[in-house]
Every structure is written in structure tokens, then in C-alpha cells.
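Class prep. Sample record?

___
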Amino acid sequence: MRPEHPKPRTLSEELLREAKEFHGHRGPFLTLGLRVGLAALRLLDAEGWFDLRCQVRLPLRVPETCLLDGIQLSTGCTLGKRNIEVEEGEGVEARFEKRAGGRLLIKVRPQTLSFIEETLSRGCEGAMEVVRYLIEAPDEELFTVQRGRRSMGP
């Protein structure tokens, strides 16, 4: 059975609640992952779940890996369906490919990562400040998007 409707393409309180329940808390990298996934759905005009593949490159350590839960929840690309792959690397970037055509690369801006790191060093209060910023900031402030990058294979 496949879903009857496409994945939502905008950040909502409902999606934030689902993400918190799925992940266990509402952290900055979870929120950033939601934003990256939602941007990919919009820009590729994808329905999610089955028409999209994702390849994420990031440091394989917490809290950065929390981004993966945000991408999985927002796009429906999951480890179980094997339409998301993860590899270690510097920075944070995600390649998306729509089955019917269309590719893009979303790179989180180094300034965004620095802001998260610096603000998290202030503890819980800093974490909430970062989450609010990541919810409200325009996409262009958080990451860059390049269309038509290399294919992810079959």
C-alpha cells in the first residue's frame, strides 16, 4: 500500500511534533534535516516516499547525524527502503534524485554549521535559540542548492 497524498512540503507544527516524537527531542540538526528534505521535495516537485533517492554526506557523529532523522521523516527516504545512503565527509550535504528525472545538491552553509556549534555551546537555552532560527530562516540563509549534479546510480 502506498500513501494517497504527497508528503507535505512546508514546515508545520504537526511535522515538528512528529519529528520530536520520532527522534526523541527537537534539536537543531533534526530541524535542519527537515528543512533540507522539504526543500528537496519542493524543488524537485517530488511526492516523497518512493519517487526520491537521497545520499547524505556528513560527519558520522552526534549531533550531526540527527540530520538524517529529519531528512527521513520529511522525505520518506528511509534506511529500510534503501533509498537513502549515508557516507562520512566534512561539512553537511545531501544529493537528491527524483526517479522521473531531476537532481540537486543541497549544501548546508559553513556559517550555518558554525552558528549551530557556537550557540549549542551555551547549553539548552542555546539549543532552543538555534531551533527557532532554523525554523524561521529562509532556505537561502541556511544552505545552497545546485541543480543537475552527478547521478547516484541505479
